[in-house]
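Re-run with default settings, no changes from the original entry. Doing this only to confirm the output is reproducible before filing.
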Amino acid sequence: MSSGCDGCRSGEPLDFDFSMAFQPIYDIKESRVWGYEALIRGLQGEGAYSILSQVGPDQKYRFDQRCRVKAIELASRLFPREQSLRLSINFLPNAVYEPAACLRATLLAARKHDFPLGALMFEFTENEEILDTGHLQRILSEYRRQGFVTALDDFGAGFAGLGLLVDFQPDLIKLDMKLVRGIDTSYPRQVVVASITSAARALGIEVLAEGVETEAEFTILQVAGIRLFQGYYFARPAFEALPQLNLRGARDMAAELGVQVC
């Protein structure tokens, strides 16, 4: 691994601190929590914007690195060791200089806290314009080489949409909540989500529906063949903690499928 890159040696230092909240990702087929997404929060639980608004253009690299380390530190303390849980971390592709070198802090944090590399999932969002597709491909290739899961977040709401899916095949795509919200009463949304799910399945990509808030949305999405879910219907993010899940709806759906929910 390279000893460093321009990003390690340049950029403004952070003059603020932050923490994380955790929101579960539920696997309806396995009837268990699949993992948790780490979400940026202020030190007193303030929303993500209170922190993101302080990140200057020259601080993106250092902020991206700090987010990874903070998420791993907290997750290593909170995750039950007997469960195989994934930790989902958002990253900024445009803040990564040299993929292998920029993973140094991540690997050190995982080693320090005895956190398995295979349990790490890195999400990049299509809401961030990808300035260099070749660079993104190198990032994803290196992450896969390290054993990480890769995910495309906010699918269906950003700059490139299906174009990104053609160029890159991550392990997982997360349907944007704009596609999920009110899908039970929107035939166009149902058709689009069914098409995306079918294409993803043909490409060997898992689909996760985020922003699920109602039982009706959950039911339609489950019928479409989606197995991974995230949203207020299951649990709101908990500050520096793992929230308790609301599984009443999941139990009802599982009963119809003949699946046992713990």
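Confidence is low (pLDDT under 50) at residues 257-262. The radius of gyration is 18 Å.
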